[in-house]
Amino acid sequence: MMLEEHNVTRSMRAGFCVYDSRGFDYDDRQGETLVELSEWTADGVKHNQMCRRSGDSPACVTNRSSSKFARRQVNCAMVVANMADIYKDLVNTGGGLKCLEATKQVFCYHGLKRGNQNPILILTHGDKLTATDRMNARTKICEVLGISETSGVYDIVCMTEHGVAAEECDPVTAYALTEAVYRALLISDMSHTPKLNHTGMAIYWITWLLNLIGSFFAFVARIFNGPNQKFDRMK
What we know:
By secondary structure, the chain is mainly α.
């Protein structure tokens, strides 16, 4: 129901925030998904911000968000899709793409892109499929979304073969999650201009001043060189 903020801090000045949102409905006939996404990308997000749906009861739409929570810009988006649901829809409908098209609508939304960088795609519940079905589903999803199967998409299992939560003991899942977060941080850094310290500012202004002085002397040399060229022609 609410956006939930998770802070990952290394110091008082270094860190990042991850926001977990409510899932979108595959049967989004009123375009609520894109409306909400446009609000997040344009206005930013903050902790306890309401995720509204048309079917919610009035008692559930009370906004608990407070001014004490900071509103933050969306620098990178991760789209999480249920691979098992998408593959089941493909099989049961004889190749129908309702779930996949809904995922594509969110993934390809222009507000989630940063330059030429697409959002990061996270596929879950693939452990419910056989190895062959899982590979076919991944190939079909990447084909429809127009992304590479080897980059930009991460297959995250939910439960191991022993019924244990994967993130607690599976090094492959832990590595995939770490790589996804690392790539998200790289994309986020692209939207920030580097902050100059005192040394950097001094070098910047000295360089600018030297360029200005060089341009001035080049202009003066050109002015005084003009009459000399005319005098040489007259000889």
